[in-house]
Design a protein that fits this description.
It is a single chain. The chain is mainly beta. It has one domain. The protein is built from 3 helices and 11 strands. The model has no long low-confidence stretch (mean pLDDT about 85).
Amino acid sequence: MPVPVSSLQSVNPSPIIELFELTLDPVLHGTTSIQDPSGNNITTIRFHNNVMEKAAGLNISWNGAVYYRMPIEVTGFKKDPKQIPRPTMTVSNLAIIAINIGNMSNVLNSVNTVTFANDLVGATITRRRTLAEFLPNSNFTGNSNPYGTPDNSQEFPIEQFEIARKSVETRNIVSFELAASIDNINDKLPARQFLPAEFPAIGDFYN
């Protein structure tokens, strides 16, 4: 359900909360290369870069999932009618994402043992956004949301991109170039050939 217009047009709207999900491709990156703090194998790492003074702890809970606090900078989401967005995501390489996960270079090394020099190419980046007023009470000191009434169904339209390539990896940062799924090299639309029997308007070119 999209965030209601009334919340956005409020005189004093609550902060926009931006959340990211990095989902591995089981074929390219394996299913046992990454573990969560409990030691369980995972294929999705969730993180955020929000600052809320009244938040309890550094992580954010949303829809039953935990998003780890990480220094992130993402640019290029602005939509242009003339071209598909190709955002850039830069993540701190000095910060530990979580116990057992390590920093971003640890993640790269783990997936590269499955597919040599893959560097997370083909992984999916999901961008989710909501307003602070809809976050669960557990995210705030005193177990009470001071901004409004929690509602985990209220989100902006979800956006998904794939990692096209790793552009930078240093001791301090790791940067990735993202691309929409239909903007990848050698991808064509439609994904399969239609025949006249399925769609007569195509015509018959072989008789």
